[in-house]
Amino acid sequence: MKSLPTQRWIFICMLLVGCSTLSSIDTRQPAEASDTQPNIVYIMADELGYYELSHMGHPHFRTPHIDQLAAEGMRFTQSLAGSSLCAPTRCVLMTGKHSGHTSIRTNGGGTPLRAGEVTIATLLKQAGYATGGFGKWGCGGRGSTGVPEDHGFDVFFGYYDQVHAHSYYPPYLIRNSEEVPLPGNNGGRQGQTYSHYQIIEAARQFIRDNADQPFFCYLPITPPHGMFDIPEQDPAWQQFKDQPWPRDARRYAAMVSMVDRQVGEIIELLKELELDQKTLVIFCGDNGGQNYFRSKEKPRGFHGPNVNPRTSVEFRGQKGTLYEGGLRIPMIAHWPGKIAPGQVSDHLCYFPDMMPTLANLAGVETPADSDGISMTKELFGKSAEQRQHEYLYWELGAKRAVRMQNWKATRPSQGKEWELYDLATDPSETKDLSKENPEMLAKLQQFAKDAHQPAVPGTFSDRTLHERDRQAKKGFKKK
């Protein structure tokens, strides 16, 4: 019998003595029976649209490795983001709280998590996991209460601020609040060191270094968002460089293909280390797609991220809205031997559910203030036993949205009337039923009222380094 890691013994002892720091733990969600704690690799592509994968029938994209994940695992048709912008959706994912309870509800200025807020990484670290993050954090810049190393991560390498993350050639990346220079770069769209390659390699090394213990590898990668840049020599660019499309549309497609290749490389690494059957891999987007590269002929964007390529049925809106186009995301769960292959799940879920799901698998309890529900029953083929949400909730500034099964109410902006849609018959949210169904609208409005609490963001002790990181997108003037 192998000895337990020191961190796990400490955690067990804390449970036995009823340590006050765990007094808020919710004991209503017992852990799923498991003989081992799975490794967890969570890959989240920035701004990838629901339909921008080749297994969804899209003719522009080539994603064979992600397609294989879907074929070998479970694909979700009703997976929804935590918000429709980068920072708030990441906060929802990490804290297990919907955006009526989170500390970050805007996308500007690097709003941080509060000191001491529990994240998925906090829980998994308590359970003895090595915890690493690689990509775009978005939950607090340097000098704030929200830096990832203060919220459960042993290491975080990449960008802390989302503005910094727009450039793939910044002068440096950040590792645990320290700058890591990238040779030959000075921000903008050109340089010698492609940041995303560095991030992926750091994640791969983290997996290698922690192959003998449970690990949580969080990959909130930046492509295909930001400046649409990819090295000319990348094999993915070679696939698309001669397409008769706008240049940035070609680069966007190449970046999706690059991400697909790297997903395949991570799966191969897990197999090489004989970890594939011990590892849950989740792949998803972070929010709805954006109508990039629009034209008169293609008003929903050149690639149509929210348009079904097989039927032409559209999701209304895009990133930044609380219509389906801003919230519906691709999501796949893959775990050979545990999750049966070839499944398509219509289970209605969203980012708050990730914390209780992963905590459940790791054998730790979920904090009582989480708004999520563990999805382990659904993952393991026990749909009849899977708990469902009474309602799901989002807010973004003055925007509001509530979902109860197929009913959805939304207030698109301050001063606008609430709208009501039946997504079962109207997935494009075109027919407002608020006048025909005032009682249903009133019920969902009451849910929205109950769900909202005033935001209490974290704080900065000093914004100097944070503002430096934001400036690094454009680079610094040479002295």
Low-confidence stretches: 1-34
Number-wise, the strands total: 18
Q: Output the radius of gyration.
A: 21 Å
What's the N-to-C terminus distance?
60 Å
Structural class of the secondary structure composition?
alpha/beta
Could you write a compact summary of the structure shown?
The chain is an alpha/beta fold and 479 residues long.
What does this structure look like?
The protein has 479 residues and is an alpha/beta fold. The protein has 2 domains: 37-390 and 466-471, Alkaline Phosphatase, subunit A; 395-451, Arylsulfatase, C-terminal domain (2-Layer Sandwich), CATH 3.30.1120.10. The protein is built from 12 helices and 18 strands. The chain has helices at residues 6-17, 64-72, 86-95, 120-126, 195-209, 235-240, 247-272, 324-327, 354-362, 376-379, 438-451, 464-471; strands at residues 25-26, 39-45, 74-76, 79-80, 130-136, 155-159, 172-175, 178-181, 215-219, 279-285, 331-334, 343-345, 349-350, 366-367, 392-396, 399-404, 407-411, 419-422. A 10-stranded mixed beta sheet has the order 8-7-6-5-9-2-10-11-3-12, sandwiched between helices. A 4-stranded antiparallel beta sheet has the order 15-16-17-18, with helices on one face. The chain has a two-stranded antiparallel ribbon with strand order 1-14. α5 (195-209) runs parallel beside α7 (247-272). The chain is globular and about 60 Å long.
